[in-house]
Design brief:
Blueprint lengths: L1 H13 L7 H7 L9 H9 L1 H17 L1 H5 L6 H12 L4 H9 L5 H6 L2 H4 L1 H8 L5 H8 L5 H16 L5 H13 L7 H13 L6 H9 L10 H7 L4 H10 L9 H6 L41
Helix pairs in contact: 2-3, 4-6, 4-7, 6-10, 10-12, 11-12, 12-14, 13-14
C-alpha cells in the first residue's frame, strides 16, 4: 500500500498542469486528499488573472449554498480559494468572506474549520485594502460569533503594525467604542481590543485601558491588566517589532507556505503520532489544556 501511494505521488508530481484550464485544476483539488497539492496550487497562483474570477465564483457558490457545503466535510476548494485570493490581495473577495463569517451558528466553523482559529485575522487584513468598514462591522455585530469578532479586532492590529492603519487611529477607534452605547459592549471583544492595543504597545491608551478594567468591562480571562502593565516595562520598539515579525500577525503572502503544514496532510514519511486528527478540536473559547487558566485562543491556540 505504501509503495502504491508513493507511486501515485510521483505520477502526480510529473503531470504537466500547464495544459489544464483553471476549472480543471480546481476540480483536481475540490476535495481534500492526503497529499498536499503543491504543484496544482502553484499553477493556479502563476495564472492569477485567469484564476481570480474562478476562485471568486467558488466563494459565491459557497455563500449561496452554504448549508450544502457545510455538510460536506471533505470539500476544500473554498479554503484554497480564500487563501490564494488573500495572497492576491483581491478586495472583491473581502465582502464575500465577511458574509460567510456572518453566517449563523456553527456554519462558519463547519465551512472553514480550524482555519478560523488561526488565519481569519490575517485573511481579513490581506483582503480589505484600505476599507475597514466590513471589519469594523464584524467587531460590533452581536449576531456574529464572538470569536470571529475577536479575529476582526486582530485584523486591525495586523493592519496597524503593518502600516496600513496608524497606531493612533486604532487607539482612537478603541476610545470611540468605549464611548459608544449603540453596541453590546461585549467583555470578550473589549478584551480583544485591549489585547490588540497591548500588541502594538499601549502607552498612549493605558489610562483608558485601566479605566475599562476598573469598570469591569474586560474579560480578564483573555488578558489581565497585569499583563498589560508588564508590556509597558518593555521597550516600545521591541514589542512592536516582535508582533510585526510573528508569522500569525502578517499578511497572507504565500498561500502554499501557509497551507502546507496543516495536520490534514499526511506525508509518507510522517508517523501517525505527528498527525493531528481534524476531529479532535479544542474550541477557541475553551480553557487551554496547558493549564494556564486562559482561553485556548489567547494561549497555546
Amino acid at each position: 500500500m505504501a509503495n502504491n501511494e508513493s507511486n501515485e505521488r510521483l505520477i502526480a508530481d510529473e503531470i504537466d498542469y500547464k495544459s489544464y484550464s483553471i476549472s480543471q485544476l480546481v476540480k483536481e483539488i475540490e476535495y481534500i486528499k492526503k497529499d498536499f497539492p503543491e504543484a496544482i496550487l502553484k499553477e493556479i497562483i502563476q495564472r492569477k488573472d485567469e484564476a481570480t474570477p474562478v476562485l471568486l465564483d467558488i466563494l459565491k457558490s459557497v455563500k449561496e449554498n452554504h448549508n450544502r457545503y457545510a455538510k460536506s466535510k471533505d470539500y476544500f476548494a473554498h479554503i484554497y480559494a480564500i487563501f490564494i485570493l488573500a495572497q492576491f490581495k483581491e478586495t472583491k473577495a473581502y465582502p464575500l468572506y465577511v458574509e460567510l463569517l456572518k453566517l449563523p451558528g456553527n456554519l462558519p466553523y463547519d465551512l472553514f474549520g480550524d482555519s478560523l482559529c488561526e488565519s481569519t485575522g490575517m485573511i481579513l487584513a490581506s483582503l480589505c485594502g484600505n476599507d475597514l468598514s466590513h471589519i469594523k462591522e464584524l467587531v460590533v455585530n452581536s449576531a456574529v460569533d464572538e470569536s470571529i469578532r475577536g479575529h476582526a479586532v486582530g485584523a486591525l492590529a495586523i493592519l496597524a503594525v503593518q502600516g496600513v492603519l496608524s497606531r493612533e487611529d486604532m487607539f482612537q477607534y478603541f476610545k470611540d467604542l468605549l464611548a459608544d452605547e449603540t453596541w453590546d459592549k461585549n467583555s470578550y471583544i473589549i478584551a480583544e481590543l485591549v489585547s490588540a492595543c497591548n500588541d502594538i504597545y499601549p502607552e498612549e491608551i493605558i489610562e483608558d485601558i485601566r479605566s475599562a478594567y476598573q469598570n469591569n468591562l474586560v474579560d480578564d480571562s483573555i488578558i489581565d491588566l497585569g499583563y498589560v502593565e508588564t508590556t509597558l516595562k518593555d521597550k516600545k520598539e521591541n514589542v512592536i517589532e516582535n508582533f510585526k515579525n510573528d508569522i500569525h500577525h502578517q499578511f497572507i503572502d504565500d498561500a502554499i507556505e501557509d497551507l502546507r503544514g496543516w495536520g490534514c496532510y499526511v506525508q509518507a514519511d510522517e508517523t501517525k503520532q505527528n498527525y493531528i486528527a481534524v476531529g479532535n478540536k479544542i474550541g477557541p473559547n475553551d480553557l487551554c489544556p496547558c493549564g494556564s487558566g486562559r482561553k485556548y485562543k489567547k494561549c497555546c491556540g
